[in-house]
């Protein structure tokens, strides 16, 4: 079972609410409730899990159904958290600890990407920037946490549509900027041809059937006839409301309202057509829903009750057969805003160019350092190779090793002779006697006496 439509409006403006009890067929399988739409909030999962746990407590659900929007927004309902069961409180405590852990991991990842390593992080100080929980108490889920969660979701959702419009405006300005820059790159003849093509596509986009004002009788009767397949002469607002309250919770939420505009949007936008921009279609859907909410949602809780819906059908505007001005017929931005946007783009491009040049120089310096390192490495390798060669040469023995022996006192000088190589002169083998050794006398001629 889902929360009531009142809390759904405050928390995330689109969640399903408590269904109306209706008799079911005995053998009919119980239908699985539809998954609530994503709110787009960065804490959407935490928000949804808290809601799912609170729904399981009968006391809290009873108090919620009796509360009004002001009780929820002011935090009065949050005090009822003190009376929920221990089992529910335990689950809420665990959800909060998981959320704090998730936020810490996000903060650490962000700090690691922008700061030096081994920097002490003040998690408590950083957690204060998150408004959907109480950072002073990081262990248990208290009434203050529920109050902060409701207040944060209410504020963020109120700003969601405005942020979407601003994002779409920037998209449109960027598209026009790129178109103008492309035209500047063409010669005169091609520029005229491209301008003519652009005007042709623009005119083709405008050639569509009449768009009925969202929430008017003509628009609702068209849905009654073409979508619901009913006789337009039998159109009944109350029956229409119940047919399109798809989750039977007694209100039309934003998604149920936007579904009513599908036929009108299909008249203007076709994804197969080059001239039709699907992002413009989503902006158109948002504008239509805002128009209905402004004129029908009397208490501005982002939900339409049956009473509010029926009162809107009594207004004069409901029966007027006017036309709807599409987004391409509306001036989304001024020329001054476009010029400021282009100046901002130019500044961003200049900054990116400066950073790119800085990175290019750093890359060049690194390449030069790599060249020097490669040269030094080559020199070191050559030096090591030479040392290895010297060690190898010193460690190897010659082919014929010389053996030196002590000479005998009267050793013949010939004993010192070294064998001569073949063909070498004999005198090269002659060893001179030591100078201090006495030379033998030459033989004297024999004299005979007569």
From TrEMBL:
One of its GO terms (cellular component) is endoplasmic reticulum-Golgi intermediate compartment. Residues 406-422 have a biased composition (Low complexity). Its main location: cytoplasm. It is a peripheral membrane protein. Residues 1-17 form the signal peptide. Residues 232-267 form the EF-hand domain. It holds the Pfam family EF-hand_7. It is found in: Cytoplasm; Golgi apparatus, cis-Golgi network membrane; Secreted. The keyword Transmembrane helix does not apply. Keywords: Calcium, Coiled coil, Cytoplasm, DNA-binding, Golgi apparatus, Guanine-nucleotide releasing factor, Membrane, Metal-binding, Phosphoprotein, Repeat, Secreted, Signal. Residues 143-203 form a coiled coil. The keyword Disulfide bond does not apply. Residues 387-450 are annotated as: Disordered. GO terms for molecular function: calcium ion binding; DNA binding; guanyl-nucleotide exchange factor activity. Residues 440-450 have a biased composition (Pro residues). Major calcium-binding protein of the Golgi which may have a role in calcium homeostasis. Acts as a non-receptor guanine nucleotide exchange factor which binds to and activates alpha subunits of guanine nucleotide-binding proteins (G proteins). Belongs to the nucleobindin family. Interacts (via GBA motif) with guanine nucleotide-binding protein G(i) alpha subunits GNAI1, GNAI2 and GNAI3 with higher affinity for GNAI1 and GNAI3 than for GNAI2. Preferentially interacts with inactive rather than active GNAI3. Interaction with GNAI3 is inhibited when NUCB1 binds calcium, probably due to a conformational change which renders the GBA motif inaccessible. This is Nucleobindin-1. The gene is NUCB1.
């Amino acid at each position: 079972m889902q929360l009531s439509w009142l809390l759904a409006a405050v928390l995330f403006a689109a969640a399903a609410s408590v269904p109306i009890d209706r008799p079911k067929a005995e053998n009919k399988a119980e239908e699985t409730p539809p998954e609530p739409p994503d709110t787009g909030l960065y804490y959407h999962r935490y928000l949804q899990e808290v809601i799912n746990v609170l729904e399981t407590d009968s006391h809290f659900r009873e108090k919620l159904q009796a509360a009004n929007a002001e009780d929820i927004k002011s935090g009065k309902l949050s005090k009822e958290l003190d009376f929920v069961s221990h089992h529910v409180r335990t689950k809420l405590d665990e959800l909060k600890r998981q959320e704090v852990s998730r936020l810490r991991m996000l903060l650490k990842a962000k700090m690691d990407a922008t700061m030096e390593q081994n920097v002490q992080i003040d998690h408590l100080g950083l957690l204060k920037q998150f408004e959907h929980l109480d950072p002073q108490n990081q262990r248990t889920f208290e009434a203050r946490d529920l109050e902060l969660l409701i207040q944060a979701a209410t504020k963020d959702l109120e700003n969601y549509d405005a942020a979407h419009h601003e994002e779409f405006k920037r998209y449109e300005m960027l598209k026009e900027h790129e178109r103008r820059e492309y035209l500047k790159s063409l010669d005169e003849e091609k520029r005229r041809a491209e301008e003519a093509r652009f005007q042709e596509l623009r005119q083709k986009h405008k050639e569509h059937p009449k768009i009925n004002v969202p929430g008017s009788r003509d628009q609702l009767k068209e849905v009654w006839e073409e979508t619901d397949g009913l006789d337009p002469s039998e159109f009944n607002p109350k029956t229409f409301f119940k047919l399109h309250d798809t989750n039977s919770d007694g209100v039309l939420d934003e998604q149920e309202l936007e579904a009513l505009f599908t036929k009108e949007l299909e008249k203007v936008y076709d994804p197969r057509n080059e001239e039709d921009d699907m992002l413009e279609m989503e902006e158109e859907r948002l504008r239509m829903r805002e128009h209905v909410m402004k004129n029908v949602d009397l208490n501005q809780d982002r939900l339409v009750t049956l009473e509010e819906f029926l009162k809107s059908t009594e207004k004069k505007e409901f029966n007027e057969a006017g036309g709807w001005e599409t987004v391409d017929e509306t001036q989304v931005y001024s020329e001054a805003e476009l010029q400021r946007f282009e100046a901002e783009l130019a500044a961003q491009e200049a900054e990116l160019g400066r950073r790119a040049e800085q990175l290019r120089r750093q890359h060049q310096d690194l390449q030069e350092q790599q060249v020097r390192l490669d040269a030094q490495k080559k020199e070191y390798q050559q030096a090591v190779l030479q040392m290895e060669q010297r060690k190898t040469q010193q460690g190897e023995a010659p082919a014929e090793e010389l053996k030196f022996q002590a000479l005998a006192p009267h050793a013949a000088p010939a004993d010192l002779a070294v064998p001569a190589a073949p063909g070498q002169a004999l005198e090269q083998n002659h060893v001179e006697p030591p100078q201090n050794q006495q030379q033998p006398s030459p033989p004297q001629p024999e004299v005979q006496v007569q």
